[in-house]
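re: ur question from earlier - yeah i can do the single chain one, its not a big deal. heres the input i used so u can compare w yours
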Amino acid sequence: MLVKRTKALLLAVIALALLTTAAEADTPDHKHSVAVIIGNKAYKDPTPAVAYAHRDAAAMKRYLVSVLG
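and the output i got, formated as tokens:
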């Protein structure tokens, strides 16, 4: 189940990247933009903890700041 969630999240991030990259030309000024990034590490049983959740959140932050501004 965790693998399916991870794959779905990865596909969602790729789709978001493609959509937002295309939209950048329409919105060149992002200085007032806000994003909420959640790196959820702990879930209720029986789903095990996700050791890399915080790294994923940090990578998403780097992408949003460096690529989207």
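Residues 53 and 68 are 21 Å apart (CA to CA). not sure if urs matches, ping me
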